[in-house]
Amino acid sequence: MIAIARMTIREALRKKLLAAALLLAIVFLALFGTGLYFAGREIALTEGTPRFVRSAAHGQLTSFGFYLASFIMAFLAIFSAIGTISAEVENGLLHAIIPRPIRRIEIVLGKFIGHSVVIAGFGLLIFSAIAILVKMTLGFYLNNIPQALLLFILQAILLLAVSMLGTTFLPTLGNGVAVFLLYAVALIGGFVEQIGAMFTSRVAVNLGIVISLIMPSDAIYRKVVSLVLPAAINLLPQAMGPFASISTPSPWMIVYSIGHVIFVLASAIYIFNRRDI
Length: 277
Prior knowledge:
Blueprint: H1 2-14, H2 16-45, H3 51-81, H4 86-90, H5 93-97, H6 104-138, H7 145-167, H8 172-198, H9 202-214, H10 217-228, H11 231-234, H12 251-274
C-alpha cells in the first residue's frame, strides 16, 4: 500500500494537472490580493464609514476568497482521481499489477493516500497564502487556523473519496460529470440554506441541510468560514452575504462528513473487490 501511495505521489507531481492547479492558484491569489489591497484601502480611506460596515466588507472579501480557493481545491481533488482506476483498467495497466501479490484494497487505499498527501500540501500552501494576504491588506489575523486548515483540506478529501468511489465502476468522463454534479448540488444547497437563514425561512434551511447530508462539501466550507473570521465579524452574519456562514454547521456535521469519507471509501473498496477486470 505504501509503495502504491509513493507511486501515486510521484505520478501526481509529474502530471500537468498539478501544474495547471498551481497556475490557477497563482492567478487567483494575484487577483485576490490585488482586489483586497484596493478594497481595503478604499474602506480605510472612506471617512464616516460605520465600523460594522467595514467589518462586514472584510468578512465578505475573506469568505469569497475561501470560496474560490475551495473551488480550486475541488478541481484538483476531482480531476486527480476520476480516472485513477478506470483509466488504468481501460488501458490495461492494472492487468499487470493485480496478478501480483497486491490486494485490491491496497491499490484503492494506496492511491487515496497518495492523492491525499498531494492535496493536503496544495491546501496548506493556498490556505497560508490567503491568511497572509488578509493580514497584509485588511489588517487582521484569521482565527482558529489549525482547525480551519484541517477542515479546508477535509473538504477536498471528501471529494477525492467520492471520485475514488466513482472510478471503481464508472468510465472516467462519466465519473467526472457525476462528481461535479454532486459538488454543484452541494453548492446550491449551501446557498439555499444561507439565504433561508438570512430571511428566516425554516423550509429553505432544512432543504439545505438535507442536501448537505447527501454531499457535505459546502457545509465544511461554511464551518471553515465561521472559524477563521474574527468574533466581531461573525456577529454580523446577515450583512455578509451568501458566501458567509449565516447558518453555521454543528460539530456533528463535521463528524458526519468524516464518516461520509470512511463510508464512501469502504464502498469503493467493496465494489473494486467484486469487479471483474
